[in-house]
Amino acid sequence: MTKKLLFLLDTDPVPSVFDTVVGYDGGADHVVGYGGVTPANVGALVDGAIYTRGPKEKQFTAIFVGGGDMTAGEALFKAVKKRFFSNFRVSAMLDSNGSNTTAAAGVALLAKAKPLAGKKAVVLAGTGPVGMRAAAMLHIEGAEVAITSRELARAKASAAAIQERFGFTPTAIEAADSAGRAQAVKGAQVVFAAGAIGVTLLDEKDWQNDPTIELIADCNAQPLLGIGGIEATDKAKERHGKIVIGALGLGGLKLKLHRECVGKLFESADQVFDAENIYAQAKALA
Questions:
Q1: 106-120, 131-145, 194-208 — which is least confidently predicted?
Q2: Of 1, 42, 104, 114, which one has the fewest beta carbons inside 10 Å?
């Protein structure tokens, strides 16, 4: 029986243990990790994957691009796909820093709770990989999206990068502190927190009595949580009349989604999993 081989190409020096474990849980028979992979050195690795098996066996080889830096991951993923031609290709997935699967899980659960079309959505700390992916997925749902950053220039640069990749430009908002973020969410119906570990982006007092906010999701599972007044385990729980989702509340779907996508890599040799179809899969699983 042909073994299912998953090659983990990581832009960090050491391949991710998390991605390795989920690779096995997703159905791979063997996961082989390479660290420090770049567009300059990936060619031989891809060639080894696409030339070694015949057409009927190629579906049992797949590539997963990971690492902590989504920008580096996107460049590497592009280089991997550029190496493919004709039927010399294998399925590939991009999920640097868990960005695609985390954002997809969060937005899918928000969309399951209430329709997002036409709603104003603010992604707090929206310049990071999860925030930028969440902004794109909220846009897919028809929301009017804004992203915040402590520096306006950084928010504008991320908005431009989103435009280049996804074809729409979210509103860039400078929110240098708690007061700025509280002001940024006024008039919004959806708040998605995608900040760093241990940073509270929005205090409970700044959303609990807001008459407009309907939906809140927070990606930070470690104290201090990104949104004050919710619990990491909240999953479509009502608090102060809003539906809230904590990081562990969306984490179950994130892991299920990650495993599901890995499994689908082995269904054919031409699967390509990036933000759009990972999000579609999240909606099917939510």
A1: 194-208
A2: 1
